[in-house]
Amino acid sequence: MSSARLLAAILIAFAATPLAAAPTERADGTTTLPVPRFVSLKAGKAMLRSGPDDRRFPILWEYRRRGLPLEVLREYGIWRQVRDPEGTIGWMNKSLLTGIRTGVITDPGDATPRLLYTAPDMQARIAWRIEPGTVVTITLCEDIWCRVAVGGRSGFILRSHLWGTYPKEAITS
């Protein structure tokens, strides 16, 4: 086979190979996204309900913290069963959520600030200290480190000091 024909055959085979399918929304409002997964609050005010309907199920909690990370546990139509950083579980309309990855700095037990480093190494220079409960944007997670940002500052933090990622999950933005 000539090199031109071989190249053409390779290109045709590559074109016919299905790529990873982009997440899609089904007619019933559920998605092909993985469950569980982390999302964050899109709205500055959001209601958590006891069930997946805004008429039949009472409000359990009202959130007023845009960017708060939540873990999606189940999907039911346009409703998502979510868990917040405190462990509270309820239902929220998907329109209140976004795929932007955020995290909450965890409390070491004595309310002391957590350390952020200039590089993913505990021997690196300390970039700054951050208070437990602070919501941060996650820009990168690899192995045991995540790069986070808030208020124009960024740094690396141990993944175990952050709620909003899974242990081996890779995050790139």
How would you describe this structure to a colleague?
The chain has 173 residues and is mostly beta strands. The chain folds into two domains: 64 residues, SH3 type barrels (Roll); 70 residues, Roll (SH3 type barrels), CATH 2.30.30. A hairpin with an 8-residue loop joins β9 and β10. About 8% of the residues have low confidence.
Précis, in short:
This protein is mainly beta.
Which terms summarize this structure?
41% strand, 2 domains, mainly beta, 15 strands, SH3 type barrels, 173 residues, single chain, five-stranded antiparallel β-sheet
**What Rg do the Cα atoms give?**
21 Å
Which second-level CATH architecture of the largest domain applies? Roll
Low-confidence stretches: 6-19
> Structural class of the secondary elements?
mainly beta
CATH topology of the largest domain: SH3 type barrels
User: Strand-residue fraction?
Assistant: 35-45%
The CATH class name of the largest domain reads Mainly Beta
Mean pLDDT figure: 89
Number of individual domains: 2
What kind of sheet is the major sheet? 6 strands, antiparallel
Task: Give me the number of helical elements.
Answer: 1
Give the tally of β-strands: 15
Q: Name the overall outline.
A: globular
Question: Topology, please?
Answer:
Elements: H1 3-16, E1 37-41, E2 46-49, E3 59-63, E4 69-76, E5 79-83, E6 89-93, E7 97-98, E8 102-105, E9 114-117, E10 126-130, E11 135-142, E12 145-150, E13 153-158, E14 162-163, E15 171-172
Antiparallel strand pairs: 1-4, 1-7, 2-3, 4-5, 5-6, 8-11, 8-14, 9-10, 11-12, 11-15, 12-13
